[in-house]
Design goal:
The chain has 231 residues and is mainly β. It has a single domain, classed as Jelly Rolls (Sandwich). Helices cover 0% and strands 48% of the residues. It has no helices and 16 strands. Strands 1, 2, 4, 5, 7, 12, 13, 14 and 16 form a 9-stranded antiparallel sheet that branches. Strand 10 and strand 11 form a beta hairpin.
């Protein structure tokens, strides 16, 4: 489903859905679940004054080793059951990873909701860490992966950027950054259950690192289910 202006934040007729969370609900997200590990944090309505944006959500690693924070959904989506599944987030990176305080970010679909689980079992999404200047497009199935360099560098310049993973059934996975197609993977597309997820996890250092999200969006179309009756 293309990321066009939604008529409703909660449109769902079973075969198609379009959920948008602008983080205006206090304490917790609407359709994703917060997950933290090793003293990482996941905080809604963060105290960030950044107009014209309203409703911001912070994910932070904390200072402990392997600390992480995530927002993720139900582990129950199989790509072959849908014509299209899309997950995106608009967020900014506060400080880039480096050799001293290192971390990884993943945005897309993963085999686990765990904020510290690496996306190398089953996944389809965009990945960043200090070992790569650019965002990497990941597809993994049964721990065998396809990694494509997007050519787009991660930045920590105060700008909010939109990262979209669009899975077209079992045909391919398209990756967009700020509305521009930056990679298409056709191999190692997950064949079993995954969940939408965005997470940051520290891999080295003692200083907390974080990302600040303005919104997330999860859309699907082309499932065989239908309501069958009118309300």
């Amino acid at each position: 489903m293309p990321l066009t202006r939604a008529k409703s934040n909660w449109y769902n007729n079973l075969s198609d859905f379009d959920f948008v969370d602008d983080f205006t609900h206090n304490n917790s997200p609407n359709f994703l679940t917060a997950d933290t590990r090793n003293a990482g944090t996941s905080n809604g309505q963060t105290a960030v004054n950044d107009p014209p944006r309203s409703g911001l959500y912070t994910l932070a690693t904390g200072t402990n080793a392997a600390g992480g924070g995530a927002l993720s959904g139900n582990i129950g989506y199989v790509f072959s059951a849908w014509a299209r599944l899309s997950f995106c987030a608009n967020f900014r990176i506060v400080t880039l990873a480096d050799g001293t305080n290192s971390y990884r970010i993943f945005i897309g679909f993963n085999s686990s909701y765990d904020s510290t689980t690496a996306p190398t079992a089953r996944s389809a999404g965009l990945f960043y860490d200090n070992n790569n200047l650019n965002w990497q497009a990941y597809t993994y199935n049964a721990s065998v992966g396809t990694i494509t360099d997007t050519g787009v560098a991660a930045v920590a310049d105060g700008s909010y950027n939109t990262f979209l993973t669009r899975v077209n059934g079992t045909t391919n996975v398209q990756f967009f950054i700020n509305g521009v197609l930056v990679a298409t993977n056709t191999t190692n597309i997950p064949s079993t259950q995954v969940c939408p997820s965005i997470h940051i996890q520290k891999t080295a250092g003692t200083t907390s690192r974080n990302i600040i999200s303005d919104y997330v969006r999860f859309s699907g179309s082309g499932n065989s289910r239908s309501l069958g009756v009118s309300a």
